Amino acid sequence: MIELRHLKTLSALRDSGSLVEAAERIHLTQSALSHQIKDLEDRLDCSLFIRKTKPICFTSAGQRILTLADEVLPMIRNAERDIARLAGGEAGRLNICIECHSCFDWLMPTIDHFRQNWPEVEMDLTTGFSFQPLPALARGDIDLVVTADPEERTGIAYIPLFTYESVLAMSKQHQLVARRAIQPQDLEHQTLITYPVEQHRLDVFKHFLDPAGIEPEEVRTSELTVMIMQLVASGRGVSALPNWAIHQYIEQEYITSRPLGEKGVWCTLYAAIREDQKDSDFMVDFLNTAKEITFRNLSGIKSA
Fold first, then answer.
1. Sign of the CA dihedral running 273, 275, 276, 282
2. HTH lysR-type domain spans which residues (predicted)?
3. Which of 41-45, 118-122, 201-205 has the lowest mean pLDDT?
């Protein structure tokens, strides 16, 4: 009665917390996902979760199927990896470059998990702040670039990893706390703390300030998220960062945040790879592992 698709559906529903997001993650319409769950409930003659609860509250039967999913789905993924190795005898190289200062939070667990499953793949990691990583990717010097700035290039494919909201972090005593949402002119007399990246590549400038023709009073930089949070908490300035990067500091009531604009500023993070490696077994598995790790561990992100 229980099929593999049911395990994937309930697992996605638990991890996402909503029918809409779960449907996006497993590439179904919301109505198709609801029908699939109802079909399974009819087969089992019991409810799997309590409707209209947030977060979703699973029944004992639902919890039992989730336990089964946690046991079976990793076994299937491992078997698929083993079969891919047997079929292709595939070893390779995966040199990763990141253009994202805050990406270490999810990238390191992803690499650790991947390395256990593909020990024969040679791995390396570098940052793209001192050179142009996309030309290096095209030349074959590196194999994957984590970036939020896709540029159309021949032979390069951009695989969306997830969508995130860029929010304005500020101290709990900051005057802008009174705002429901931040407008570009609110930053005209503020010190904006950023990573040491060209302004035209920063979300807050590219999608928020530049279109409005606004410049902050001062810009200062820091390479470390934790240092930026210390400066923000002590009232030395404000900073626009990904929602998932500052979630723990908000949970600890160290700082607070507000959306940029009434609709927020939403951006997508991509993995740039060469077209000729798009179907490589270990590359496909790395991308799937990255998505799995991020959606399991990062708060506030959405399917791209």
1. positive
2. 2-59
3. 118-122
| CA 23/CA 33 separation, integer angstroms | 6
Residue identified by tokens 């900073």 is 239
Answer yes or no: is pLDDT of 130 > 80: no
Q: Which helix (H) or strand (E) holds 21?
A: helix 19-25
Strands 92-98 and 121-127: parallel
Q: Which residues of 14-23 are buried (b: 16+ CB within 10 A; e: fewer)?
A: bebeebebbb
Written as six digits, the tokens of 291 are 């998505």
For residue range 163-180, list pLDDT tens digits in order. 999 999 999 999 999 999
Radius of gyration, CA atoms only, the chain: 22
Helices (H) and strands (E) in the chain, counts: 11, 11
DSSP string, 121-173: EEEEEEESSSS-HHHHHHHTS-SEEEES-----TTEEEEEEEEEEEEEEE-TT
Nearest to 37 by CA among 51, 16, 24: 51
* pLDDT band at 7; cut points 50, 70, 90: very high
User: pTM of the predicted model, to two decimals?
Assistant: 0.72
- With tokens 């996309």, the residue in question is 134
Question: How far is it, in rounded angstroms, from Cα 291 to Cα 268?
Answer: 13
Neighbours of 95 (CB within 10 A): 17
Structure tokens at 281: 């077994």
Structure tokens at 284: 């496909």
The mean pLDDT value for 218-236 works out to 94
The Cα–Cα gap between 158 and 151 comes to: 9
